[in-house]
Every structure is written in C-alpha cells, then in structure tokens.
Amino acid sequence: MALADSARGLPNGGGVRSPSGGPLLTPSQSLDGGAGRRSGYITIGYRGSYTIGREAQADAKFRRVARITVCGKTALAKEVFGETLNESRDPDRPPERYTARYYLKFNFLEQAFDRLSEAGFRMAACSSTGTCAFAPEQGGPADDKIWTSYTEYVFCRD
C-alpha cells in the first residue's frame, strides 16, 4: 500500500495535481519526497515525419508522434514515469541496470517533460536529425517529399 501524499512530504497534502496527473512538485522535490533521491540522466527520444508538397506549400501533413522512447537507469525511469512506463520490451531489467527499450504509454512530449520537471530533472541537451525522401515510391505525387526526423532530449538530476 502506498504512503499517503502528506506522509511523503508532498505539498498541500498532495491534493493539487499537475497537468500530467501526478502530484504537483517543486523542481527541488522528487516523487519520494527527497529522501534517497537518486541523481542521473534520462533520455527521451521520438521519431517524427511529415510530407511537404510542391514548393513547400502551407499544406504540410504532420503525423503524430508514434512512440516516445525512454533510455536510462531502470530505477529512475520507474520513479519518474511510474505506471505510464511500458516495460514490455525489457520486463525483468534490474533497477541498477540501464535500458534503452522502454517507451511511454502516452504520445505527448509535454506530458513527459512535465513529469521529468516535477521529479527535479532539468534539460541538459537535445539533438535532432532529419532526412528527406521523395514520395513517388509510396504512391504520392512526384513533387511530394517525406521528411523524417529523430529527436532526443537529455535530462539530468543532480
């Protein structure tokens, strides 16, 4: 049975909730009230794609983020994301080990950023790469280009 929010030292007895649904925390607090708080890094990554028609018209077709991946120490990922962390690709990973096989059950980057911020993480770095391909082989018009990108955000907690 989980401790009550007030017993864990959460503000306002835990009655105030964040946009991500978790307890509202200040950046200096962790989900365990600060006791035994672990430092470390978590990397969030996602692939995106969109199609741009002839001469970069304003009708670009964006696709939703299909999956947000989580890389880092298993214990940290579980602390931050809790039940929203999908562990099905690496279910028996020990807490002290690292993994790059978890992903989130939701598809909103802002929700992931909220959870990391609430757990005392700050963004340390980000990186993105993109490629372009013409779409005729996918059945699209000859002038359409498909852009794909991969973006990673590195968060740290001291």
UniProtKB/TrEMBL annotation:
Superkingdom to which the source organism belongs: Eukaryota
GO cellular component: neuron projection; postsynaptic membrane; presynaptic membrane; receptor complex
Record's subcellular location: Cell membrane; Cell projection, Neuron projection
Family matches, as InterPro entries: H1_KCTD12, H1_KCTD8_12_16
All copies of domain KCTD8/12/16 H1, residue ranges: 40-157
Region (Disordered): 1-36
Pfam families linked to this entry: H1_KCTD8_12_16
Keyword Transport found: no
GO biological process per UniProt: regulation of G protein-coupled receptor signaling pathway
A GO MF label: identical protein binding
Chief localisation class: membrane
Keyword Membrane set for record: yes
UniProt KW keywords: Cell membrane, Cell projection, Membrane, Phosphoprotein
CDD domains: H1_KCTD12
PANTHER family hit by this protein: BTB_POZ DOMAIN-CONTAINING PROTEIN KCTD12, POTASSIUM CHANNEL TETRAMERIZATION DOMAIN-CONTAINING
Name assigned to this protein: Potassium channel tetramerization domain containing 12
Gene that encodes the chain: KCTD12
